[in-house]
Amino acid sequence: MSHYLKMMEEKKQILITGVAGMIGSHLLDSLLESRNYRVIGLDNLSFGKLKNITLRRNDPDFRFVEGDVLDSGLVRELCRDVKTVVHLAAVKKIGESEFRLPTLLVNTRGTENVLEAARSTGARVIFASTSDVYGMSPDLPFRENGDLLLGPSMIKRWSYAVSKLYAEQLAFGYHQQYGLPVVVLRYFGGFSPRSSFQWSGGHIPIFVRAILRDREVIIHGDGSQTRSMAYVDDLVRGTVLAMEEPEAVGQIINLGNTEEVSVLETARLIHRIAATGKELKIRFIPFSEVFGQYKDISRRRPDLSRAQELLGYQPRVSFEDALRLTIEAAREENRD
Q: What is the residue range of 76's domain?
């Protein structure tokens, strides 16, 4: 057997659902650059973008499939020879003008399809959950074994948290009943130059674009709500650690950054770093105008003790440095 063929055999084959999204595409880059993986990427491109993976399309260790996690036959076929599935595909938070059913169905049935396909091969499943499941819990910082506090069912913004929480239970059901190795990662907000410029992609890319284009920064509420936002490199590194650490199986693990910054202060910080020479223009909009009945989560900050103990994980990129990287990349794109 040639040295090349032996190396190909030794590479771990992995499936990433949602590969063209922000986290998925950066994870793809990391795995291919390590040269230890062959990657199958699945995405229906409803949120993800082909440009995020364009530079990898000709890599012999990457195969892209345009398709949907709701297609159980396709998911089963793609899982046939993989050792690990990182399930990132999801429909995220919704506004008042959108329907809740796509969020509920994709995030639950899609996850069930992934778990069922992985069960037939024994592949490890890394399931991407969210800090949204903590809801309005007053117990800060949020701990994986803490109580969760969600709002009324009639408020459809909770459909995202409910769908992810159900999928967590589904993952642990497969783990308990079938012995399927699963890891649940609760991502706190992340961003990068590839973030979506919809509200589902978070407030930072929207603020960056508005400030660089000398437009109004739209802030929902009074901007006092805080978030702990991580640069994508930290989220990807934590994900790879969870893929490779045996002790992570059967665990829920927070991933993110512990720097807690208000939405209003974030806008001011982006404006300062961007140094456009223009005045910061802010317009405050009541939550009700955008989301109807709505209860915002006033604070989010993760306890990362479990990630540190199990994975040796700590965020390496400061919030301010991450903003600088994102702003500079956005400037370069505008020049192009």
A: 7-192+230-258+300-317
Position with higher pLDDT, 221 vs 334? 221
Determine, yes or no, domain membership for 332.
no
* Domain-embedded: residue 281: no
Query: Would 283 be classed as within a structural domain?
Result: no
Give yes or no: 37 in active site.
no
Which of 37, 160, 174, 294 is an active site residue? 160
Burial class (CB in 10 A: 0-12, 13-18, 19+), 307: buried
Residue closest to 257 by CA, chosen among 202, 182, 295, 215: 202
pTM as predicted? 0.93
Q: What CATH code is carried by the domain that includes residue 17?
A: 3.40.50.720
User: Could you tell me if residue 311 is inside a domain?
Assistant: yes
Lowest mean pLDDT among 4-18, 92-106, 177-191, 254-268: 4-18
> pLDDT at residue 131 above 70?
yes
Of 183, 176, 192, 91, nearest in space to 132 by CA: 91
Q: State the total domains in the chain.
A: 1
